[in-house]
Hints:
The protein is α+β, with helices and mostly antiparallel strands. It contains four helices and 13 strands.
Amino acid sequence: xxxxxxxxxxxxxxxxxxxxxxxxxxxxxxxxxxxxxxxxxxxxxxxxxxxxxxxxxxxxxxxxxxxxxxxxxxxxxxxxxxxxxxxxxxxxxxxxxxxxxxxxxxxxxxxxxxxxxxxxxxxxxxxxxxxxxxxxxxxxxxxxxxxxxxxxxxxxxxxxxxxxxxxxxxxxxxxxxxxxxxxxxxxxxxxxxxxxxxxxxxxxxxxxxxxxxxxxxxxxxxxxxxxxxxxxxxxxxxxxxxxxxxxxxxxxxxx
Length: 255
């Protein structure tokens, strides 16, 4: 079975939502893996705070799963923010694992002063039915930091990821890991899975949306995609598009 998968950090729910929708329509993926998804339901909310509602209408025939990390207290109201997966194929099992802290019901951005080290992040572990096979899909929004290197919180994240990888036949792991491929955390993941974009990318940030004088974004690969060794990758690419502050990952594979 041939499957087209797309991964993207949406940038605060989709600040460039019109461009995102056009890209999704053009690519027509079978599975969509997303981070920074907002679940605002009020009609007067701006588009980027109604991510889930917008995409549910767009992918109305798809199955979906939403794993909120926190409830963001904003001027517009209290809105859940988290990870989401849309799938053309049935999702029959869902699990959410918090990586560095638990769900925050009263999160306020101004309290963090641009230091989101302890902000709640999670991973989704879904089981998707593919004809006579099951696909284990893990969507991660990793531990934030001022650099992309190993640290105790990220080692713990790595252990939690490896725990989720045990004893599954077909597995895809993707998302915004918030760390770089040269870390021990990633090397340990590569003992179990194939790093699809290994050593190919210079950055997965859209530098147009990032301050060039801060953060080393032009040399930071934080969005990654891994597959189990029995999955045959047919094509993969990272289009340089202005649809988010991150670049999308697109992969076609056979199971």
